[in-house]
Amino acid sequence: MSKLWGGRFEKGTHHDVEVFTASIGVDARLWSADLRGSMAHARMLGEVGVLTSAEADQIVFGLKRVHARFESGKVELNPNAEDIHSEIEKALGEEIGPLAGKLHTGRSRNDQVATATRLYLREEIDGYAQDLKSLGAELIRIAEAHVETLMPGLTHTQHAQPVSLAHHLMAYFWMFSRDQERLGELRKRVNQLPLGSAALAGTSYPLDRQKVAKELGFDGVIPNSLDAVSDRDFVIEFLSQAALTMTHLSRLSEELILWSAPEFAFVELDDQVTTGSSIMPQKKNPDVAELIRGRAGKVSGALVAALMMMKGLPLSYNRDMQEDKEQLFIGLDTARTSVRLMKLMLESAKFNSARMAAAVRGDFSNATDLADHLVRKGLPFREAHEVVGRVVRGCLESKTAIEDLTLADLKKHSPLFDESVLQEVQPLSVMRARATEGGTGPAAVRAQIEKARRK
Description:
Layout: H1 15-21, H2 24-27, H3 31-47, H4 53-72, H5 84-96, H6 109-145, E1 150-155, E2 158-164, H7 165-190, E3 192-193, H8 209-216, E4 220-221, H9 225-230, H10 233-259, E5 267-268, H11 287-310, H12 324-347, E6 350-351, H13 353-360, H14 367-376, H15 381-398, H16 407-411, H17 421-424, H18 427-433, H19 442-454
Parallel strand pairs: 3-4
Antiparallel strand pairs: 1-2, 5-6
C-alpha cells in the first residue's frame, strides 16, 4: 500500500516489518480525537492564510463526513494500515480528493499523534474521575449505615483494637479521594497543546497555536517544540495514578475475599459479582474481587513498561514512543473497569454485623483500654502495660475474656481498678471511646463522613 512518506524509497517495506511497526490495532480508538484536532488545524490554516477559506472549509466538511462515517461504523479499517492517522487521511482523500493532502501543512505526525493522545486522555480522565466519585459516594452510603457496627481492627493481621465497619470503609474513601485529586492535578498537565510543534523544531508557516488550543479546550500550548513531541511523562504520570488506584482496589478486594470466606462470614457478595465451580456445586467464588487484585499487577507492569520505554531516548521523537498507547490503554481500561466493578460489588454486598461483633468478643482487643484505666488512676503507662499483660496471661490460662472478668478478678492484679472499668472494657465502649478527630468513635466517624460528603 502507498505510504505517506514513500517518495524517498525505492523498495517497498518488507511484510514482516509492516506487521511489526503497525499500530492500527492499538491506536484505532483515537479516531475521534484525531479528527477533532485536524478540524481545528484546518480552520486555523484558513484563518492565517496558509489555505484559502474555501480550501479550509472543504477540508473541514470532508473531515466531518469522515467523522460521521466512523460514528455510523461505515469505515472498514485496513488491518495492514500503518496507523489510524494514515487511515483517516486516506478516508479524507476519498471524500474530497487531492485537496486532502493540504491538511498536513505545518504539522507532522509527531505533534498530530501527541495531540490526539492528549485529547483522548483528557476526556478519559474526566470519566475516570466521575467513576472514582461514584465509588466514594457508595462507600459513604455504606458507612452511614454502619457507624456502630463493631468489627476487629487489625495490625500485622492480628486483632488489635475494635473499630466500626464505617471507619474501616472510610479509610478506603480517603484513598480513592486522593486518587481523584491526583487525576485533577494530572489533567492540568495533560491539557497542553503540542500541535504546531511539527516534527521537532516548529514550522515556518505562520500558525496560530493559541487559536487551536482555545478551540480544542486546551489550557495553553507546550512552550518547547522538542518537549512537545518527545516526552510522554503525562502518560507515565497517568499510569502511576492508575497503578496507585489499582493498589487501593486490590487491598479492598483482598479484604472482601477474606471476609466472604466462611471462617469470617463478614460479608456475602451478590450472585451477580460471583461465580460457581464446574465440579463443586456449593461454591460461590469472589472472582471479580480476585481479578481486580490480579490485574493490579497488569497496570503496575504497564507503568514500568512506559518508564523503560522512555528512559534512554535522546531528543526528540523516536519510534519507541509508539508503544506508549498500548500501555496507556491497559491502564485506562483496567482501572476504570475495576473502579466500576468495585462499586457494583459494594452496592450489592450484605454485611453481617452480628458476625463481625462476635469476632471481637474475647479477642483481647480491649487490653489497651484496661491499661488506660490504670493510667487514669495515676499508674505510669509502662507499669500499667505490665499489669494488663499479666491479666491477659491469666485470661488465656483460664480461657476467660477480659470483658467477662469481675472486679474482684481485676483487683488481684491491681487495687487501682474500680467498678467503672467493667463497662469501659466492653468492646462497644472501647470503640465508642475513640472520639478524637479521625478516630473510630461514632461522633468522630459521623464528622468524617460529613467532611467526605462535602469533599
